[in-house]
């Protein structure tokens, strides 16, 4: 292909027990946005890690400008003009924004570090991105979204010819997505070839020129975005027609109140948060990023201190404010931050699955009953269709979406009354999302109650029995299904207080 900037041909990559890539073809043209799609574990990140020198391919060839190249390591990739923004960030949290942007390529005056020139250069890039962050800011004080933008700034500073973005919008707000797309278009006009991996298919229309779909480590096909439909892309991804993105709504709400939160306050974070959760209810929490939804969840779960307020579960007030007490009372919290809080990445899938109820699988002497524990773990991993060669695989080796499924399995294994799902489908493919929704319906039918925090409005609208909207740490509205729509939610989410 004459206009191809880069061609990957017959790429194969094996990990112990997994063929992650099986003779995959992929190409990138100058000035295009090429979406790379596929279910969790399809091999998207692995293909891009091969291209950016993180993983070595077992077979296949890579051509840049028609010349065969050997991308042996990330530095070589950088020299070739290939940059990647990883699905899980790679920033050094104790360094400043500028130090992160120029890591390994520090500005120097003689042999000394030239912080001033480095900060100026970083500042220029940040301004180009319309980012209001000082280059001297420590990365650990930034929000997830801001860290994402720093990753992008870092990639831009290399003047890359190829930019790979692995789920760049998973943690971004609408306005941040808009500015990301603006920058993407600017780069496109400069002739940069962009690979864009996302499970948020609705975004593609705004940005994609072509789309390549992978399934189970194999290449399925490449289409021009304009000549295809979302349905066609989805059936290429899942290998069958998926009639609907959401299962039909099945309300299971009872009158009984399971959880009451009363006047919950935390200085500068939460003000007078009060609401009821009923048995069998799915209560959606909506709001812009930073509205305080995760903070409410963490406060209920005892993960953060509160200055005042009450949490009453099944008629009993939680007297102490700690995670063990919350779990004991029957509350489970599926965190949005799976890498740091949700999983022990260095432990097996099986142990992670059992973590919330480890003592439940021990015999009276405190020794784990291996037969029982592996039975439960294998049942749960089948139920959630967790893709792993076996249950002894390290959780950290699974694809992003499959890691998220382990967190869900973990809480299913502990039979809790109230489950708080914080961004449960972030990074999860369409087919698996459907399964998670079905699972949530199954749970409420069994009499459990769910608080679902989600930034995806269609998801909140489709699943919730009621929707609480937050802004600046306060509840600004409580909407019934009839009252709730995208417009009413956005109105209360963006309300000036
Ligand atoms: N370092 C590793 N060791 C072992 N197996 C791995 C490793 N990295 C990836 N895999 C496996 O390779 C397969 C492809 O994973 P990959 O991360 O490329 O999927 P993905 O398409 O990016 O999925 P997702 O949408 O969930 O991010 C998965 O089965 C995964 O478990
Ligand atoms: Mg991935």
UniProtKB/TrEMBL annotation:
PROSITE patterns: ABC_TRANSPORTER_1, ABC_TRANSPORTER_2. It holds the Pfam family ABC_tran. It is found in: Cell inner membrane; Cell membrane. GO terms for cellular component: plasma membrane. The keyword Transcription regulation does not apply. Keywords: ATP-binding, Cell membrane, Hydrolase, Membrane, Nucleotide-binding, Repeat, Sugar transport, Translocase, Transport. Residues 6-497 form the ABC transporter domain. GO terms for molecular function: ATP binding; ATP hydrolysis activity. This is Putative ribose/galactose/methyl galactoside import ATP-binding protein. The gene is rbsA.
